[in-house]
Design a protein that fits this description.
The chain has about 650 residues and is mainly β. It is about 5% helix and about 40% strand. It has 3 helices and 56 strands. A 5-stranded antiparallel sheet has the order 1-10-9-8-7, with no helix packed on it. Strand 54 and strand 55 form a beta hairpin. The two termini are about 30 Å apart. The C terminus is likely disordered.
Length: about 650
């Protein structure tokens, strides 16, 4: 019987509330998604963790995911638990019968818990905070525990450099030679397929034990040895593949798999993602076979001939990939000799990742956007020297080579542009210049009044109205506050809202002006965004989000981990969800959260976020505003100082690509 040892929880004890909070916020659980095979690896979203990001020194050669969602990493530095944000060392059991605490393999059985195998013999099982250690006294040979596997009858197997052993729940028994399995050293491996067949191999041989049989059979393989390694994987259509380290070959065709296999992910093991793309870790890269089902049984594929690859020069945390895992959400994780990498479906469309688009917009600057037509096209400015059209994923050549700092699409579908050198009006594809404004320095905000007059905020000169071909200071409205508004927005009742530095707003209704401030509940600092919603009017500011119910403003409280500050763009979807662009990145607030906040103003809303890990470059800024718009096709676009990004507004509840949910 193994020795039971309590885990030394110096690192893990801190995980508790803080880790659960981080996991639920940063890494939300959702339905499994595939990584589209029509995208190359370089087109997927990639995140890397090296030593500077807290990854263990020496990287990872084994990965596993437990039922609580944590990712477990083994490598030269030991055993670590990863919650998507930080790596925590887990103390290994201190048992005098263990010759070394050098971890060699890792495995999660169907019943939960975690097995680790040790380099110089022995294994240990972690569950409910306690280690149970097994050594020679329990039947394990004094040899490296290379791979674990669990067959459908619940039997646990491990292959070591000294042979195959089986666990009966309390004791290990050497069974390899008695079941016709020769030594597979120095690099033995195990695998269980969807039919319950146990595969064992190494050196230059492959054997299988079918469910109910007592002896292994030799499986001929048309790949010469000696193999540089060995590992196996099975696709959802039941094709079983062998990776010899240099070549891939399909060795069996089973019926379609209905349940995941239960084998440990060994060194450089191949994996199938949720779209049946085969991922291969090699000594110099990560590579993929996009449609392996199109290859006939027995086809040999050389790993170095796979052109879809990702290397350290592309951003992989190290040149050598050592382990792979597909998590419950379909992300592919790769352990390297220097860290940990994640590949996921891109959450955002990022046009400036295209070399052609970068050539069109050579100086991204501070990007501003406006809707152009009903097809999903956009107007794009870099605020420096270029105004372009974006349609069907491509940027046009510059339509106007002027420093445009504000774009406005009016309710009547016309588009207005202002900068530091003039104003323009676009209608039916034609650009026309407007009368010059003598006081023009830079255009901060534009709005079109109900009567068709154009309003412009020109810092520091103030606000002007273009009426009958002439610019009128303060629009000839004496009651308007002096100064240059940050935003000017026309609401659904055709009122104009002006937000001023200092946190106050003025509403122009006909010729009447009303000013709101802190006494009216508006306490979010300078207002950077104003969005007339279907029920409420939403304001985003330096210190938060507020809604206006027609009489007073109400601050929207948020959970501690969700910072709603420096909000410069707001879009409300047809379903009532809010999308925000702020200091934290892109934030999605579900209509149910907002409804709860209306009923109980003290309720802290929770939401989803997209940020640097999702590929967003740059930050929000003073202009052009707003930094979030809805295109004619319903896609929502966000602009930053480093680019612009689009997302389907119907995407809710599953923005993030990790599945570490508690």
């Amino acid at each position: 019987m193994g020795v039971v040892i309590n885990v030394l929880r110096s690192g893990c004890a801190r995980a508790g509330v803080a880790a659960a909070l981080a996991i639920s916020t940063i890494l939300s659980a959702r339905d499994a998604l595939a990584l589209r095979p029509d995208l190359t690896i370089k087109e997927l979203h990639h995140t890397a963790w090296g030593p500077r990001q807290g990854a263990p020194l020496g990287g990872a050669f084994g990965l596993a995911q437990t039922s609580d969602g944590y990712l477990w990493v083994v490598g030269p530095s030991g055993l670590f638990r990863f919650d998507g944000i930080s790596f925590e060392r887990v103390e290994l059991p201190r048992d005098p019968k263990l010759f070394s605490l050098g971890v060699y393999s890792i495995f999660v059985p169907r019943g939960g818990g975690l097995w680790v195998g040790f380099l110089f013999g022995g294994a240990a099982f972690l569950k409910d905070g306690r280690w149970q250690v097994y050594t020679e006294e329990d039947g394990l040979p004094r040899a490296s525990a290379a791979h674990f596997a669990e067959t459908r009858d619940g039997a646990l197997w491990v292959i070591t450099s000294a042979g195959l052993v089986r666990f009966d729940g309390s004791h290990w028994t050497a069974v390899g030679s008695g079941m016709g399995l020769p030594s597979m050293a120095p690099y033995p491996f195990l695998f269980v397929d969807g039919q319950g067949t146990l595969w064992a191999g190494g050196r230059d041989s492959l054997f299988l034990l079918r469910e109910g049989e007592q002896r292994f059979r030799n499986q001929p393989v048309a790949v010469r040895g000696p193999w540089l390694g060995g590992a196996m994987a099975e696709s959802s259509d039941g094709t079983v593949w062998l990776d010899t380290g240099t070549e891939l070959v399909s060795v069996a065709q089973n019926p379609p798999r209905v349940a995941p296999v239960s084998s440990s992910f060994g060194k450089a093991a191949p994996v199938f993602d949720h779209d049946d793309t085969l991922w291969v870790s090699t000594i110099d890269s990560v590579r993929r076979v996009a449609h392996p089902q199109r290859l006939s049984l027995g086809t040999i594929v050389r790993s170095d001939a796979l052109v879809d690859r990702y290397t350290d020069t592309d951003g992989l945390s190290a040149r050598t990939a050592s382990a792979s895992l597909v998590d419950r959400e379909g992300n592919v994780w790769v352990g390297t000799s220097h860290g940990l990498d994640r590949f996921s479906e891109p959450s955002l469309e990022a046009p400036l990742q295209s070399a052609d688009n970068l050539r069109a917009l050579t100086r991204p600057g501070e990007v501003g956007l406006a809707r152009s037509g009903a097809s999903g096209a956009l107007w794009v400015t870099n605020s420096v020297d270029a105004l372009l059209r974006f349609r069907d994923g491509k940027l046009s050549e510059p339509v106007l080579t002027q420093p445009i700092t504000c774009l406005l699409r009016a309710p009547d579908g016309t588009v207005w542009m202002g900068g530091s050198s003039g104003f323009w009006h676009e209608q039916q594809g034609r650009l026309e210049s407007l009368p010059p404004l003598k006081s023009l320095t830079v255009t901060q905000a534009l709005a079109l009044g109900k009567s068709g007059d154009l309003w412009a905020s020109i810092p520091p000169a103030g606000v002007f109205r273009l009426k009958n071909g002439a610019w009128k200071p303060s629009g000839d409205i004496v009651a308007l506050p002096r100064g240059s508004p940050i935003t000017i927005v026309r609401d659904r009742r055709d009122r104009l809202w002006f937000s001023y530095p200092g946190g106050k707003v003025a509403v122009l209704d006909g010729e009447q002006v009303r000013v709101y401030g802190a006494a009216d509940g508006l306490q979010i600092g300078n207002v950077w965004a104003n969005h007339p919603g279907r029920v409420d009017l939403w304001l985003g500011g330096e210190f938060g989000l507020a809604r206006f119910d027609g009489d007073r403003f109400h601050a929207v409280r948020s959970a501690p981990e969700l910072r709603l500050d420096w909000i410069t763009g707001i879009v409300e979807t047809a379903g009532g969800d809010l999308w925000l662009n702020g200091r934290m990145g892109i934030v999605h607030l579900a209509v149910s959260e907002l409804a709860h906040s209306r009923v109980d103003p003290s309720y802290p809303v929770r939401g989803e976020t997209l940020g640097a890990f999702d590929g967003i470059v740059g930050a929000v800024y003073l202009r052009p505003l707003p930094s979030a718009i809805e295109a004619g096709d319903g896609k929502i676009w966000f602009s930053t100082s480093g680019g612009f990004y689009g997302i389907d507004g119907c995407t809710t509840g599953h923005l993030h690509r990790c599945t570490f949910a508690r």
